[in-house]
Amino acid sequence: MLDSKKAYNHFVLLVKERPPGDFALTLIDSLLHVLKETQETTRQGLLHEMKDNTNYLTENLINVEGLTRKSSLALHTLGRFFHHYITSKLSGLSDTSLEVIRSKLVARVEDLREFVMSSRGKVLSSALEFIKDGITIFVHGNSPLVEFLLVEAAVKHNKKFSVIVSEARPDCEGYALTKSLLAVGIAARLVVDAAVAYALEEADIVLVGAETVVETGGIINGIGTYTCALCAKMLKKPFYVVCESFKFARMYPLTQKDLPEIVKDRKTLPLFRSRETDDVTNLPVLSPLCDYTPPDLVTLLFTDMGIFTPSAVSDELIQISNA
Questions:
Q1: How confident is the model at residue 1 (pLDDT cuts 50, 70, 90)?
Q2: What does the DSSP assignment read for 153-211?
Q3: pTM surpassing 0.85?
Q4: Taking the CB of residue 201, how many other CB atoms lie within 10 A of it?
């Protein structure tokens, strides 16, 4: 009987064993585990097993302890990318024995794993020349890729710059990022979200990550990204996005209402306590996890496949689909 939970169970196990934040590799390793351990005896059975395990894993990521709904959106995109990646290879192996098919698929997935592992370094290569000495960079949220880029630029490439970090309420992700940057000697300051426009006057560029890059060339990212992009546009500041290409998704949102349900309004809103927030249990709350930033507000996207304008994303998605 087909077990569609094998990848999910392995994912949960690996999350407990590994350092936090390595979820992309963990997802690939979990699906690779299924591929290596499969007992299927037919090509079609193997295809169904991988598809069902991929679907079950991506649809249940929100149940994994330590994984946020925001992160699960990016991993959902990676899951779709993974499935396309192996099925495109499978379609060209129709006259081959199942054992040869399985070994070739394993090799292909291991290539994908290597690609994901090298993605951050390639993004760094794309974006590094835009981080000039003496500039002030405005950052929203706590993207691991943005943190990696800033730390590498400062520590390994001796770039001298300062950073303004928005607090990124309601989860206040900016606090952790500010502490991390200060710990390695980067001049960083935290700014309250209400002062984003005020602080942006001082910045030279805006740098954000992305949970997903959609077909329009716009991005889905942590709530407040859209606000920062609007302010940057008004103040004529370049708005740069850093992301891995496996986050490119065939989605076409036009408004905030078109976002996936997983990142729409949550039922509770974490608030700092004060006299004004002592009793908020009965207040109606609007608290989405992410927003959509349209392509006309994005200057450039720095990826592991090079630098893209938003208009080039759709063409790149077609190439990825045909790979």
A1: very low
A2: HHHTS----EEEEE--TTTTHHHHHHHHHHHTT-EEEEE-GGGHHHHHTT-SEEEE--S
A3: yes
A4: 10
